[in-house]
Description:
heterodimer, A: three-stranded antiparallel β-sheet
Amino acid sequence: MLVETPAAFNKDRDIARSVEYVSKTMTDQRNLIPSAAERPPGSLSAPGGAEAGRPLCIGAGVEFSYGKHRVLDGCDLSVSPRQVVGLTGENGSGKSTLIKCLLGFIRPTAGQVRCEPRVGYCPQENYLHRSYAVAEHLELVGSLNRGGEPLDAAWLSHCVATLKLEPYLSYPIRKLSGGTYQKVKLLTAIVHRPPLLVLDEPTDGFDWTMYLVFWDLIAELVGRGTGVLMISHLLHDRDRFDRIYDLHDGRLCA
Amino acid sequence: MPEHGQRRTGWLVFRLSALELWRNPLGLVLLAVIPAVFIGMILWTASENSIPLKVFFGDETVQVLLTQRQVGLVFVSAAVSGFLAAYYALILFHNDFGYFRFCVFMGLSPTLFTAARFVAFLGVTALLAVATTFGLGRVTPLEQPFTVFAGFLLITVIYGAYGGIVGVLSRSFMPALLLIVLLADLDAAWLQNPVYYSAAQQSQIIHWLPAFYPCQMVFSAAFTARSNGAALGGALVWAVATVVLLIVAVHWRMRGPLSAGGRFDQ
């Protein structure tokens, strides 16, 4: 469950102070987020219910090393509801590693992280089941109950139509083109309309039209209260972001 | 008792698991070709000469006189069932495992995943055991067909669980397949050959292999009218142990939910 933070909290304040506050208040001080099955139902009322000012994701002083190679060196980052946060950096700079630290997949060697458990995640890897049809995949992920809320069928239909996926619903995933595969990955991340959306290179393979559609969908979600953290090498539209972090030599510059 | 949403998800995982096997053309071809080739070779090459064999009944060993063809048919059927079950379990618990780890991240219970997957796997093993018993009964008389079926079922469960364990723990398909072939070849297709076992100098080592008890169960039920509690008990212990190990292996790989640094393509 997200913990109450001081009402006066805002993004410009020293994030370490917020984290310190959160860590004092939390009853379960785990660095790793629990699996969805363990998460308490209704840990956040609804995407739209996430109030501005309460960070959905906080990382403070996050450090991580692969052996002797230090990838992250004291990274501070936060994502609040209705915020679109960009994360840029060179290839191999540690962007995906930072996200995996934030989501609890890997344990930081130092620092603290705290994220809203109901997170929609679009990883970089191609992980979809090759034997399933798109509709079968959507049926399965749609049935996965997050926070006790049933799948919003109208929202799913809207997303399928917006992403122009109707003709592909009966296609085996192994036969999809790169762009369509990416659309299914994106849809998987947003299917439950999560309060926090973490996207790792989500527009890879999109044509220009789909790139614009992507931003329309993001705007729609943000309008409903979702906070977005997005990795991209190419941030064409800097004005679409509320904040952009650049990861360089393990350090984040906002 | 799982709630309605979980039951629906469990049913979906079960249905999709069965579809995966159905959509695996190589698996379907192997299912038909491997038994046909091996049993065909026995029918073609084996003689009607009699061979004295030892069958394990716990404290005592009974000697039976069987034709080379009878021995070959039963022995090869057991070996083929074991290998095919291991291969199918490998497909179920190895291919696209990263996808299910992502589903666990999305909210799928690892226990529900294992249960639904295992029920689908048991369905395959039961069909395999029925087909093997029925096919064998057509070419050689069986004294206790139902117990023969139970023996084949236990072989498929034990070897299937073994294939699942190897599949879950291995990162790539080929080494996993080779491990399966290695044990199936060594155990079910060689050391459990009753001709070899009957004359073996160190039969105690053969007793410790996973296919020993179910194979002895099948031989005793196929060619004698006696019940074989020792073989049944040993086979059940092996089946339970391998299934428990499979469940532990699945949970271990799903833990956290991710032991592979958040990668879903492994």
